[in-house]
Amino acid sequence: MTAAELRRASAQQLRDAYKAGSATAVELLAALYAAIDREDAQLGAWLYLRREEAQAEALAADTRYAAARAEGPAALAALPPLLGIPVALKDLVNLINTPTTAGSRILEGYVSPYDATIATRLKAAGAILLGKTNMDEFAMGSSTEFSAYKKTVNPWARDRVPGGSSGGSAAAVAAFHAPLSIGTDTGGSIRQPASLTGLVGMKPTYGRVSRYGIVAFASSLDQVGPFARTAHDAALLLHAISGRDAHDATSSTEPLDAQLLNLPAGDAAAAGIKGRRFALPKEYFVAGMEPGVEQAVREAVRALEAAGALVEEVSLPATEHALATYYIVAPAEASANLARFDGIRYGASGHGEGNLLDGYLATRGRGFGPEVRRRIMLGTYALSAGYYDAYYVKAQKVRTLIAQDFERVWAAGFDAIVAPTSPQVAWRFGAKMADPISMYLSDACTLPANMAGLPGVSIPCGLSEGLPVGLQLIGRPWSEASLLTIAAGYEALTATAAWRSVEPHDLAALSGGAT
Ligand code: GLN
User: Residue 199 Cα, ligand 1 centroid: separation in angstroms?
Assistant: First the structure.
């Protein structure tokens, strides 16, 4: 394979090529880092590259493939599915002896003393960890413009945002700098950037993936999940990171679904759409939705119907309160989680310039950016005596109503909810920076799944004004394999659609021509 082919290959294709001996992890790694070196000054997806360790991991993977090839088919089949597959990590995943910034100045200079559980699992699975990607500070934001370090552009249009908060992880996979990446989704931060960059991005059921070693934003909402260019690849990565972890009491003992490693493909995948029952919630077609986005989503729904799915409109009446309640619950939890950044335990410190209080004020005043300060103030206010019952307790009650809306859909026998992911395509830099509420509104369709702890996936479903549109599937708890099976079915149905073969328009421009 040429360097251009290698960087575009899916994890599945790479695994097959490694097994056949037609590609090596070392040559893939060289192609990816060469692309990063040429393009990232423009793209801005990466905060830290792990070149030497990645090279050692690639060599080790190639050695294992060569040994297994010599031994025979059984040995090859026994190799872990992610062996030699590069993965990018959002820069809030702790990796031992590696900087973790969470996109914030307050963690500048901090080097992790341990591995997050997902990092341990990825290493054990033989994955190559390429480096850390840019993000909104502490995962607060929808455009990655709140990174304290740099701007990440959308490879589809350099004057537009990649979405957020996992914008670096999305841009890296969309620009073929990595076949897979890890993001976190507290209110939409995997699904929304996946939608804006034309990727598959999944937020698993709350508790499916360990949060141990992940910098916390809002602990009752945060989930780690995969970005990929295909449903099959997303399933491989999800499988590798999922499962009970003794270090995270909220991680579930729910057994892993082996189907994740065996999603149907081609005609079998397409045939699996027949007879499925999908609920189309009318509240998700929110005011302000762009007509081109609505059109692409409705066409995707028609394609599912044409393949034999039954689609019925439903009402989820508590949806309209999801945004308001999220912006009580998430900042409240964030204000508590971020109390630990006091200049004593981690990273940047303003202590030593006065008394203890002066040290706290200096550390936090300089270390936190505008959006994080806004959230801490909102959360501290919502939790303060006299307001706690009026805001926080009330929001928790509404959260139950949101969950009950979904439960009625599952009780009625639907397989999944189909909806838009983002009401808009990628917007221009700066368009929402002056008005925090307009930024918050971009998550209107993704927040409810976090409030209810449900799995959701965004999959590409076409282009509007030349920019990617995402279709969101939300399912009952622990139905990730079923959602990704449906996603694989939709991919098969639309495999020959013209929009599928369009590459991000500004890819060539990022490097001045070479791709
Ligand atoms: N955009 C939402 C927020 O700013 C969601 C972020 C996320 O999922 N991490 O809170």
Answer: 18
